[in-house]
Structure formats: structure tokens, C-alpha cells
Amino acid sequence: MKTKLCLLYGGKSAEHQVSLQTAKAVIGALDLNKFEIYPVYITIAGQWIEGEQLSSPVEDVAELQLTASENEESVFNSLSGGKYDVIFPLLHGPNGEDGTVQGMLEVMNLPYVGNGVLASSAGMDKVVMKNVFAQAGLPQVGYVWLIRKEWQADESAAYERVEKTLGYPCFVKPANLGSSVGISKCTNRSELEAAFAEAFQFDRKIIIEEGVTAREVEVGVLGNDEPECSVIGEIVPKKDFYDYKAKYEDGNTALIIPAEMAEETQQQMREMAIQAYQALDCSGLVRADFFLTEDGQLIINEVNTMPGFTPFSMFPLLWKHTGVDYSELIEKLISLAIERHEEKQQIKYTF
User: Fold this and answer.
1) Rounded mean pLDDT of 129-137?
2) Any catalytic annotation for residue 156?
């Protein structure tokens, strides 16, 4: 029998368009002899719209932007009614990658691909994530965080705190967003002021990180309780840093896979990635991002609990070079989702 697979994509997030690209790619890679594919589009306004079963890949992401009919049955009836065997949340950013959708699926007792509520929420909030990594003893760059109210109450004090604690250069980021949205590099006070205004458009909390001269290296992690790592890749941006345009629009980035690194350093990086994975209690997948300094020091930057997932994104490319092609990678993630769900069914809720 075919597996009835529900794809959740879109979402109320600044990463909505990235999610559409991911969904198009995944649909194109799925074996229709093994899966019945049902699209569920979440509009930018947060409306959930269920589509008909797909019989072929989609040619353009516009086909995935479904519209609701007046007599359409609620998507939630389909979810709670057991219509689907597995849910695949292809959602990036807030309202999808942050544990919100995962919590809903947990309440419905549905198997779903990827990280659970805790790992998703902690992985989305860069401040919480860094605090967890600090507790686990993982080396990191210096960082400061603020909420919007603190900044509005005394802007000068906020800037002075960053300058005194971190200095320049530094990077200002929304705490709860991915795909390099809202990130700025700052080398002086005026740039810092503009960066705060930019980042606070996307979140009520921001994080400011110490700038470091280093190579940007990444590794894919796959699995549940016994995770495995891919080969290591390197990002070489042609600009100052790997921003949204470099990732998705102008191709101004070189991805080097495998990265040229000493075997000892590679092994250390894999061990640190798994340590981070387990500290957050991850499942399914993450992409773990590191800095490698000139003197050979590895510093963890972050993990992404739903990394870019087109065939040209770093996570699938890392696994392709490890010997797992795109279609096989998707099927492995679906198997891991079913495995994790079956394990949860062993938990007792009465005594």
C-alpha cells in the first residue's frame, strides 16, 4: 500500500517563499508509486487550504498557492480523521519551524517528519539555543540579546552595552528567524543603529554576536537516538557575509563539498554536531553550522532544525556527497518520523 503523505508548506513567515520552493522540490523527488501526496498550503495570512491528491510534479510554485472553496471541508478534519499516514512540515521560520505546528501534530498524535516541539522551539530561538549550548560546554562567540522594550526605553544604553561587551565588527539578528532575513553586519555606531531598527521589524527579541574571522563550515545530521553525520561542506560568500540574497537570489556564494579540512578537525566537528543535536533532543534532521578560525578552533554557530531543502541547498547536497541522494533522503526522513512516532506510542499515560 502507498503511504499517504501530507505536505505542509507556505506559512505565516518571512520565509514563506523559501517554503514554496522546498515543497516544489520535494514533490518532484517523491516516488508516486510509493506515496500518495496531498498538499496543504498555509497562506501568508495563516489560512490552511487542502488540495487534491497530486498525480504529477508541479511546474511552478504558483500552482502550490491554493485557493479555498466555500464548501471546502476543514483541513483539521482531515488531519484528526486519520486521512494521512505521515505529515511532512516543509515550513521554515516562525509559525512552522518553531514548535507551534509540531505541538498541534503532537496533540493529534500524528507522525510527522523532523524535530519535536522542544528542539524546534529551542532551535528557532537563537538566544535559547545558545544558552543550551553554553550549558553543554560547546564553544561559541560572545553574544548579547535584547527585547524591543529595552531598546525603546534607552537606545544609547543598548548600543553602549553591545560596544562594551562585543565591540566591532558584530552581527545583529532577529532571535527567531532563519534564511539570513533581517541580519546586518555592523562596523560602527550608525550601522548598529540601522541594524537594530531592521532586526526589530522581524522579532521582538534580537541577538548581537561578536564578529569572528573564520571559515563557515557545515555538517548535516540525520537520525533519532543514534544520529549520523554527513561529509562537511564550506560556504564561501563573495560578499561580507552569507545573507538572504546570497542564499536565494543572486547565487553570490560558492559551496565547497567536501571542505578541505584535517581529518582530526572533521571528526571533532561531527562530535560537536552530535553533542548539540542531543543537547536540544533533536530528531530527524538538522544542519549544524560552525566557524573554523585561522588557528584551527571550531566554534558552533547554530543548528537549523528545518534547513533549506531544495536539491541545491546545503543539507541535501551534503548528504548527496555522503552517498544519499535527494529522493532517498526524503524517504529516510519519513521512515525516521514513523520510527519516532511508534516509539512514543509505548509511553504510558495512565498509572
Assistant:
1) 97
2) no
* Cα distances (angstroms) measured from residue 154 to each of 109, 161, 184, 226: 46, 11, 21, 47
Nearest to 44 by CA among 88, 93, 114: 93
Query: Could you confirm whether 51 is annotated as catalytic?
Result: no
Residue 233 known to be catalytic: no
Contact 344, 119 (CB under 8 A): no
Q: Quick check: is 252 catalytic?
A: no
147's enclosing H/E stretch is strand 143-147
Please confirm, yes or no, whether 304 is among the known catalytic residues: yes
302 is catalytic: yes
Q: Which residues pair with 88 in a beta bridge?
A: 7
Kindly state the average pLDDT of the residues 203-213. Answer: 96
Under a CB-based contact definition with an 8 Å cutoff, are residues 210 and 254 in contact? no
Is 323 inside any structural domain?
yes
Single-letter code of the amino acid located at 85: D
User: Do 101 and 42 meet the contact criterion of CB atoms below 8 Å apart?
Assistant: no
DSSP annotation of 139 reads -
Single residue among 64, 97, 112 that ends a domain in this structure: 112
270, 289, 313, 326: the active-site residue: 289
Residue 84 counted as domain residue: yes
DSSP 239-308: SSS--HHHHHTS--EEEESS----HHHHHHHHHHHHHHHHHTT--EEEEEEEEEETTS-EEEEEEESS--
Query: What is the domain extent for residue 75?
Result: 3-112
In the predicted structure, residue 250 carries a pLDDT above the cut 50: no
pLDDT of amino acid 168: 98
